[in-house]
Amino acid sequence: MTPAARLAAAADILDILKGTRKAAEEVLKDWGRNHRYAGSKDRRAIADKVYQCLRSRERLSFAMDSDSGRSLILGALHLLDGVSVDEIDALYTGEGYAPPKLSLAERNRLSAGEGEAPQWLEAGLPAFVSERLKAVYGDDWLKEAEALMLPRAPIDLRVNGDREPIRQGLEMLGYKPELTPYSAFGLRLPADPPPNVRALPAFRQGIIEIQDEGSQLAAFLAGAKPGMTVIDYCAGGGGKTLGLLQAMQTLEGKTSGRLIASDVEKTRLNNIKPRLARAGLEAEFRQLTTDGDGLEDLIGVADLVLVDAPCSGSGVWRRRPETAHKLTEEEVARLHELQSAILHRASRLVKPGGLLAYATCSILPDENDMTADRFEADHPQFKPRPIADAVRVPQITSDGADALAKLANGSHRLRLSPGTSNTDGFFVALYQRKA
Ligand SMILES: C[S@@+](CC[C@H](N)C(=O)[O-])C[C@H]1O[C@@H](n2cnc3c(N)ncnc32)[C@H](O)[C@@H]1O
């Protein structure tokens, strides 16, 4: 494909993305399957352009006064890549598979430059999100916003066992794995070139799983130990389930205790089964009604309940930038209500003296501190459990434990983010039910 044809394809894909809830990764795969003439270099260049536009979508659509795929691409070429209008003219010839020539309006837009763009646009985020980030991070908000949206995220792995031999094995295969600083079971692969982890024998054998270090930490901080009865209340997908089971292993590597994975979505619960099977692990499964029915026999019984609540997913926007501009304030308010209801229902399962952990992969205070505040006000029988008391576990490195305790600053709440911990954005709040 010519460079111009690649740009035309990227614009088409951006238009498709506007009208679908599918992930960008999936839409790009579909496009590749339907356009067999595109080679791997073409697909790569097209994907790079699509993601570049998605990461700066708000800024580009503001500058171009349009959010069509074509406008976003033109804006990216000129504003982000520094391609001049004359050079764009040479690409946009309308001949063969090249995009149609520039219109007068487009030429004027490009020549006008960006003008007085509001600062929040630089981060590519919706305005209300930037306001929230300012409230949480103060002067550092723009740094946080850029880290959240602009760089491609590395691929983190969680190793079911000793990570050093796996690191060496990956190195022998030509990868450049690093040890994650906080999780003692984590390895980090650079985003570029994208590693095909699912094709690795270690993945097929369940020795490695793809899981961001922040997500690993959320499971490890919850406080699971061998012998416990643990409920992974919003388990769908199973990332935390595996981390919890890892923490429930004895020194001999045997899981001890009982883990119940529950969720309202049967298909999501079913997705956990092959992951557990690959890793040779077991759990019980319960499908819940939306009112939380389905665990009545476990009220007041659990040593630990983890609530990895449904959320905006704003903490993972560096991986899924296409979802950022679709989030609305109304949706965030709905999520806050849902999280509060779920946390209340799940808390009934904790036995006196037992533990409760609340987690989201969101960076928005509405879903994090505000949900935690509300829970604490309504549930005085739960006392805060400081993060510093939860970090000294075998799954967290000792330097990592120090750093996380420092980050939590005496609190029972921890905020992880691409800007502060080089992880996805995660929030964890820990509680213990009074005896
Ligand atoms: C953030 S995801 C869980 C991710 C999972 N823990 C992991 O680590 O892979 C939130 C889950 O909550 C589930 N959920 C939504 N509403 C729920 C409810 N009312 N009660 C329990 N789970 C619910 C969703 O189906 C979804 O699987």
From TrEMBL:
Matching InterPro entries: MeTrfase_RsmB-F_NOP2_cat, MeTrfase_RsmB-F_NOP2_dom, RCMT, SAM-dependent_MTases_sf
Active site (UniProt): 361 (nucleophile)
Domain SAM-dependent MTase RsmB/NOP-type: 145-434
A Gene Ontology BP annotation from the UniProt entry: methylation
Pfam families listed in its UniProt record: Methyltr_RsmB-F
Entry keywords, A to Z: Methyltransferase, RNA-binding, S-adenosyl-L-methionine, Transferase
Binding site for S-adenosyl-L-methionine: 263, 291, 308
PROSITE patterns, alphabetized: SAM_MT_RSMB_NOP (PS51686)
Transmembrane segments: none
Molecular function per GO: methyltransferase activity
Family under the similarity heading: Belongs to the class I-like SAM-binding methyltransferase superfamily. RsmB/NOP family.
This protein's name: RsmB/NOP family class I SAM-dependent RNA methyltransferase
Source species of the chain: Asticcacaulis machinosus
Lineage: Bacteria, Pseudomonadati, Pseudomonadota, Alphaproteobacteria, Caulobacterales
